[in-house]
Write a structure and sequence with these properties.
Blueprint lengths: L7 H23 L7 H70 L7
Length: 114
């Protein structure tokens, strides 16, 4: 892939710093607010990781679907060209046969051309 993929470890410091800032603001206002426990933070991290993985899978499925649509459209265009040509040729065959029979009839000895 040409796109750079972010690893969960790279995103964690940003998420944690946002949580810490939010906690500091809550403490400054009330003073009685408790900090989340280690278990709560681990649970929140696991939930965020699960959500990120679900989003990643959804993105990959969407990309695969777009790729399938593109391939299907290309195949449809190729089939349209192929079958349009076959239809055109099948419509011309009776005309060719009629012209050949007319030529043979005109070339035959004793044919009255006038």
């Amino acid at each position: 892939m040409a796109k750079k993929e972010k690893h969960p470890q790279e995103e964690l410091p940003q998420v944690e710093s946002g949580q810490v800032e939010g906690q500091a603001g809550a403490e400054g206002e009330g003073g009685d607010a408790e900090q989340p426990s280690y278990e709560q933070l681990v649970a929140a991290l696991a939930e965020a990781n699960a959500s990120a993985e679900a989003s990643r899978e959804q993105l990959l499925r969407g990309q695969a679907e777009l790729d399938n649509v593109r391939k299907r459209a290309e195949r449809d265009v190729q089939n349209a060209h192929k079958y349009a040509l076959e239809k055109f040729v099948s419509e011309l065959l009776p005309v060719k046969d009629s012209l050949e029979m007319g030529y043979q009839a005109a070339s035959a000895e004793g044919a009255d051309l006038e």
